[in-house]
Amino acid sequence: MDDMDNITGTAIQIAGATSLASLAAGLGCWLWLPEQIEFWGSITMPREVGIILIPILGIVLTLMLALVVKCDPLCENLDSSSQAAMSVIVMSPSLFSPVLQVIVLWAAFTEHSLGTTPIVFLFSIFLVMLGGAFNYVDQNHVVGIRDPWTLQSAHVWEEVHCLATKLFMLAGLLGMVAVWFIPPGFWQLLFMGVIVLVPLITSSVYSFLIREDAQYQYIVR
After folding, report:
1. CB neighbours of 45 closer than 8 A, spacing ≥ 6?
2. For residues 59 and 153, what is the distance between their CA atoms, to the nearest angstrom?
3. Are 122 and 100 in contact (CB under 8 A)?
4. Which of 93, 117, 169, 177 has the fewest CB atoms below 10 angstroms from its CB?
């Protein structure tokens, strides 16, 4: 558990640094920002709130993920590759916060409406990262396809995540390209839901289908 504590501690430190960088970028532009910052068309908020919202969300989500990882008993026995992959997922909200902060500031300076395109694009990158992590993460209750069959059998977990790695990375790559051809707003958000649900449901169904094979192997052994 000490190794996992060190990794989550490092992840929190990096998350804090990136969140502070996001906040510093917003504060540095304070005097030149409009009184109201526009988010996604019809949503506006005072600049005092707008420049701190993304950094706070980034660090809060990172802390929540780190807490869940520390409370999961299955994370105690993860190997070094699994721990590294887990730390990347824990850090991901804060890693994306500086990029999103720059996009928000650019939209405020240029008086552009911040549509859903950058959100879907960044989310698609996250899916690629998540798919890559699936290839290394062992059984746990935090990251991965967690259903009764994957958590009961290491064989099912390994087989399902071998498939999930390909599906999520393919979905992310598809999202990074297709988002530029889909109308912003409702249709992009619907597309974002589809590229998450299709690989998730497919992986869960696959875990159900191979559960009997895993039970047979267990009986034979």
Report:
1. 36, 37, 39, 53
2. 34
3. yes
4. 177
Q: Are the C-beta atoms of 72 and 18 separated by less than 8 Å?
A: no
C-alpha distance across the termini of the chain, in Å: 30
Please state the pTM of the whole predicted model. 0.81
Other CB atoms within 10 A of residue 67 CB: 13
> How do the domains of the chain map onto residue ranges?
1-111, 115-221
pLDDT tens column, 53-109: 878 888 888 888 888 887 887 777 676 777 778 888 888 888 888 887 777 777 777
What tokens were used for 118? 């950058």
**CB contact at 8 A, 160 and 115:** no
Per-residue buried b or exposed e for 101-130, using 16+ beta carbons within 10 Å of the residue's own CB:
bebbbebbeeeeebbbbbbbbbbbbbbbbb
